[in-house]
Amino acid sequence: MKLSEAIERIEQPCTLSMASAQQRWDDIAKPIGSLGKIEGAIKKIAGIAGSHTPDLGKQCVVVMCADNGIVGQGVTQSDSMVTAIVTDNFTKGQATVCVMAKTIGADIIPVDIGIARDMNNPDLINRKLMYGTNDISLGSAMTREDAIKAIEVGIEMVGDLKEKGYGMIATGEMGIGNTTTSSAIVSVLLDRAVEEVTGRGAGLCDEGLQRKADVIRRAIKVNQPDREDAIDVLSKIGGLDIAGMAGLYIGGAVHRVPIVVDGFISAVAALVAAEIAPVCKDYMIPSHVSAEPAGRHVLDALGLSPLLTCDMCLGEGTGAVAGMSIINMGLAVYRDMTTFADIDIEAYVHFK
Questions:
Q1: CB neighbours of residue 233 within 10 Å
Q2: 3-class DSSP state for residue 114?
Q3: Residue numbers annotated as active site
Q4: What are the strands of the beta sheet with 58-66, ordered from one edge?
């Protein structure tokens, strides 16, 4: 599906279903609102599904894997080879997110959207558009056309997965150097100083952190991304993994599937998606707030409040899986709990 067509197809979530879900929560035999954000998440999911009895079916994490040319500027502790190694581990069930996802029965679906080498792995979905992006300190990461193609990969993935019975999808990523591209995007889209939104990623020393910030400033100066055009920003200083995840969020809104936001990089992709198609924010479920410096800034800009605060910053979709476990527990209470009427107790009422 073309991006332009997808944007035209997005509709608002069903307000009647959300109202019915709120009434169900009020009828359940517990203090009103006592499950806090969990209740809000289930109410939102009801609106997305267009039903006050949503069925999430199968669940998965789609991990967008891609390399970033900016790694050549020494902004990370490791080189791009790690992207390929960890991606292979996703297919073997050996990455952190795989172990976590197994506890809730969620599948891991890794996608090669731009790894810098041929993978030759039959268990890896191949949607490679480039062998890694270009070095953003020297010029654009990719063409505008490639950025749009990457977004469309994500949109298509959601449609395919819904047909296979997946009712909740989490975003994940793997790409050495992607906290650098993410910080660059945030600096431009939120108009914040580079040093304010740039963190240590996988563990940079003070000197490495300063080099990383300097490289981001140089990339922004060289490329002059248009803050009012998120696709321009994405194509000039972003990454293919971020673009693919942005497509997942837009696809969620098109196909009425809740998309669970992971940490900083996933949230940056959500920010890009929301700039392109604002209504897709209503289809996002925030899992946690990243320990990266700009993690909270991005969620605030999206108007999303995280279910969890664990100081996580691993990526891969790990925080999203933790959030999904909370959502599943909330849905179980919503679906199976007795009501005040069932046990012949006077219901609680709302007080302003």
A1: 25
A2: strand
A3: 316
A4: 125-126, 107-114, 58-66, 166-174, 259-261, 284-286
